[in-house]
Amino acid sequence: MTSLAARLAPESIKKLIPYQSARRIGGAGRLWLNANELEHGIHYATHTEDYNRYPDFLPHDIAVAYQNYCQTNVPAVAVRGADEAIDLLVRTFCKPGADKILISSPTYAMYEFCADAMAVETIDVPLKGKEFQLDVEGIIQNAPQAKIVFLCSPNNPTGNLLSRTDIISVLEGTQHDALVVIDEAYIEFELAETVIDLIATYPNLVVIRTLSKAFGLAAVRCGFILANEDIMEYVLKLIPPYPMPDCSAKIVLDALSAEGIDIALKSTSEVIKIKHTFIEAIKNNQWIEHIYPSSTNFVLIRTNSKAQLFNYLKENGVVTRNQSHEPALNNCVRITIGSPESMMEVAQLINQYSISSL
Ligand SMILES: Cc1ncc(COP(=O)(O)O)c(C=O)c1O
User: Fold this and answer.
1) Are strands 223-226 and 76-79 parallel, antiparallel or unpaired?
2) Structural domain boundaries in the chain
3) What does the alpha-carbon distance between residue 357 and residue 327 come to, in Å, rounded to a whole number?
4) What is residue 358's predicted lDDT score, i.e. its pLDDT?
5) Atom 2 of ligand 1 has which residue's CA nearest to it?
6) Ligand 1 centroid, distance to 83 Cα (angstroms)
7) Grouped pLDDT means (10 residues each) for the chain, 358 residues
8) Which of 128, 171, 235, 323 could make an SS bond with 332 (beta carbons 3.0 to 4.6 A apart)?
9) CATH class of the domain defined by 4-39+260-353
């Protein structure tokens, strides 16, 4: 007999496959290099005396600190991670069962997931070529059918930046039709390439950011939406009543102090160096077909055998992300850049690996 829950749940939720976050997939391992976190966190000592009170509605000091960090006057609002920003934007601007969003795959899966959850259709205009760049014409042609174009730069899982010229063409071509959301979760690894400055010229541009990556604060759950006042006015209608837990807010303020920013940017340069050393150490393996250029804290590797590298690393206690479910990323594994010791171990494992050993 059909359960009450099954009878009550809308079709869109019944069909929904839960988002496969690294934590939800779980597993066992020694080295966790599957969620693009900072392997060794920065320690923030903090306390709050006000656990009995609800936190601020929209912590103004955090918004100002983030604007200062970004050197912008564009309105900023803190939310519980960039994931909440994506969800909020879809719920604010898309009508369930009627509207569409546009993505360029392969990209971060949460855009489509949040749309599916709202019975909002996703149009995919795939990234082009080995460089995974935008199909600008295809996006502009399809954008009138979509309310939001979600683009990710640097892109997860491919690791590359999208061309600024292409982003500008998309903004020009869609300005009367759709919002263009640029997800800059990994921008600290190529900070000069931010498009926040374009918000002044293109009112349909929204930028989302996070402290989960370069700032090493994935557990704190803090992301940001940066957009013009008129977009913000609508987003703020739906924002949860208390979008930032007070204990998180205190840590975020420390992280966005001059000292906190300095620590995060130094740690980012360190990760970039470790990444280059790691790539040098593994690049001559005959079974590695391609290491994609990376503007992030992870590398995408195409091997010449499906899932073997992923399984081999897993058997050796190293948890990475298998990307083979994406047709364009067949045989690809994504590896987060961890500490020098971890990456040396992974490089040694990779160099010991031979296809015949499996
Ligand atoms: C491109 C991209 N956007 C957003 C997120 C989510 O970030 P947050 O931890 O702030 O929710 C991630 C996390 O992996 C990501 O890769």
Assistant:
1) antiparallel
2) 4-39+260-353, 60-259
3) 26
4) 47
5) 185
6) 6
7) 91 87 76 90 73 84 97 97 98 97 97 96 96 98 97 98 98 96 98 97 98 96 97 95 89 95 96 98 90 98 87 92 91 96 95 65
8) 323
9) alpha beta
pLDDT at residue 190 in the model: 96
Looking at residue 43, its pLDDT comes to: 78
- Is there an atom of ligand 1 within 6 Å of 210 CB? yes
Contacting residues for 302 by C-beta, under 8 A, at least 6 apart: 288, 289, 290, 291, 292, 329, 331, 332
Residue 223 — φ and ψ, nearest 5°? -130, 175
The alpha carbon of 181 and the centre of ligand 1 are apart by a number of angstroms equal to 14
Paired residues of 206 in beta bridges:
181
Ligand 1 pocket check for 167: Cβ under 6 Å: no
Report which ligand 1 atom has the smallest distance to the Cα of 210. 10
pLDDT given for residue 132 in this prediction: 97
Taking the CA of residue 83 as reference, the ligand 1 atom at the shortest distance is 11
Q: Distance between alpha carbon 161 and the CA centroid of its chain, in Å? A: 13
Cβ–ligand 1 contact at 309 (below 6 Å): no
